[in-house]
Amino acid sequence: MKTGTSYEIYNKIDTGQFKLTDFFEDENEAKEFFGILEKFLKEMKKAKKDFSPCIFPWYAVSLHKAEIADKMAIIALFLKGEYVEKVFEYSKIFSYYVKEDIFKLVSQKLENENYEKYVIAGLKDVGITDKAF
Fold first, then answer.
1. What is the spatial distance between Cα 48 and Cα 35, in angstroms, rounded to a whole number?
2. Taking the alpha carbons of 125, 131, 132, 133 in that order, is the dihedral positive or negative?
3. CB 72 within 8 A of CB 100
4. For 10, which of 75, 115, 125, 133 is 20 to 30 Å away at the CA?
5. H or E element: which one contains 11?
6. Are 6 and 77 in contact (CB under 8 A)?
7. Region for residue 55 given its phi and psi (left: phi exceeds 0; alpha: psi -120 to 50; beta: otherwise)
8. Is the pTM above the cut of 0.70?
């Protein structure tokens, strides 16, 4: 399934082209995955965790904080509300593209004071380019 950027994914979620059940069994499973990723992210001491060997002696896998935070942002787009606000605290970890995409989404609908604070902080962030505007 071709997904696109987080902004494109959000638009597809918003228009009903992507449903939570396309990726998860139900809302509870999405919340569970979000919680697992959040717990793992909080427990990571470094920006990258290597698993070597993994399955086979010649195979290795690396997990990066940015990749985990990016996935949490996508799940938050499905769950909305408090989950979107939860990912705000990980915005420094987001990859460049997701940081811009989340900024675009939040700045379109300033739902509460936390959204406003996020947008104001984003205006000072050099990682967010004028493309976001």
1. 19
2. positive
3. no
4. 125
5. helix 6-14
6. yes
7. left
8. yes
Token readout for 38 is: 């959040």
Q: Which amino acid is at 28?
A: N
Q: Which two tokens stand for residue 17?
A: 């082209």
Kind plus residue range of the DSSP H or E element containing 49 = strand 48-51
Which helix (DSSP H) or strand (DSSP E) does residue 48 occupy?
strand 48-51
| pLDDT (tens place) for every residue of the chain, 133 residues total | 456 666 677 777 777 788 888 889 999 999 999 999 999 999 999 989 898 998 899 999 998 998 898 888 888 888 888 888 888 888 788 777 777 777 777 776 767 777 777 777 777 666 665 555 5
